[in-house]
Amino acid sequence: MLNDLKIKRLKPTEKVFRVADHLGLCLEVRPSGGKYWRFRYRYLTKANMLTIGQYPEISLAEARLKTLEFRKQLANGVDPSRYQQEELLKAIQENTGTFSLVAAEYMETKTGQQSEEWFKRRNSYFQKDIFPIIGCKPIHEIDSIDIKNVLDTTMMRIRKSGRGTGESRGIFVRQMIGEVMSYAIITKRISIDPTYALRGYIKLPEVTHARPLTDIEKKELFPKLATYGGSTSTRNAIKAATYSWLRSIEIRRARKEFIDFEEKTWTIPAVSRSEILAGKRNMKKNRMHIVPLSDQLVEILKEQFQLYPNSDYIFPGEDGDMIGKTTLNTALKNLDIEFTMHDLRATASTIANENGFNQDWVELQLAHVSSNKTRASYNHAQWLNDRRNMMQWWADTVDGWQ
Questions:
Q1: Residue 204 placed within a domain
Q2: Structural domain tally of the chain?
Q3: Residues 6+ apart with CB under 8 A from 371
Q4: Which residue of 45, 111, 374, 386 shows the fewest CB atoms closer than 10 Å?
Q5: End residue of a domain, out of 26, 49, 83
Q6: Domain stop point among 198, 232, 260
Q7: What interhelical angle do 232-244 and 341-354 show, nearest 10?
Q8: What is the mean pLDDT of residues 179-206?
Q9: Spatial separation of the C-alpha atoms in residues 94 and 383, rounded to whole Å
């Protein structure tokens, strides 16, 4: 059996070694010089070893008492290792029971599964709307009234900001809280999701769909853009969207490497799964998309290349990086223009169809492509010349608005 004098005399070697004490207790000496109490036992015929703690923080007397405790558990048919794990889990759950801590644990489980944008958006709402009201409250004490207060506060904040009536944000926040509550149910913190009772609490307003521009709006678009006091990059981005039928995201994320001036094409490539998770999606639908360039669009692109030679983006912001999500629509609003970037696409689709262009060409130009990737790739090649003629006709038509 060991005593303190014998323990002090034990010197480390190149390999780990153990010295037995009594009833399965031993002291493990590691090459680093650390000495750790270990308990060796058999449970259901399987050999196991459990760490008690480090010497001298855990004394010999304390290690022996712990050994007797473990042997009593074995006598009662309990695995000491399993018992310790369950006690640790119980302690963790008791000490991390607030909503904010459970939410952080839930978000951690999504690492590598969701994009940076997914995390950024949720963290923003957690900090602005959710945590200030229920973040510090034990998750099992949160009820539907607490969550209703969060939703009401969220919608009020959005209304005051002037960025809408807040219903869609309120529904999103309820869904976020529901995700955390579902995780809490899975990890046995709660048994009922209090967001369920609020699923019909918020009613969305009627959706305003994209619309074609009026004749007056068509005539005013380019003259008003000419008076824009912001950056040339923003002004040219709106013009490029008008000529190309591209979405704002596709304009904002466009890189110079996408442009082939010899072939007069703008090719938006698909990206990998890892790039999508990193928030680097080029399009709403992650598929290759080819845009034939009209003469007018070529001139805009050449101007951008000359104005911003050091940026990888075609239409960069002031810092040379990607322009913001709301920059283009905000520019329209500042010019007292009452339509949105998406309305430009609706206008192009309506006019092209009214003038007898093949509906498949129009849908492909809008990147409303077939779910069949093989067919989509074939159509890109098959109809490129047809769409090139259509897009030159469109650019000339837009110029005629003035």
A1: no
A2: 3
A3: none
A4: 45
A5: 83
A6: 198
A7: 30
A8: 90
A9: 63
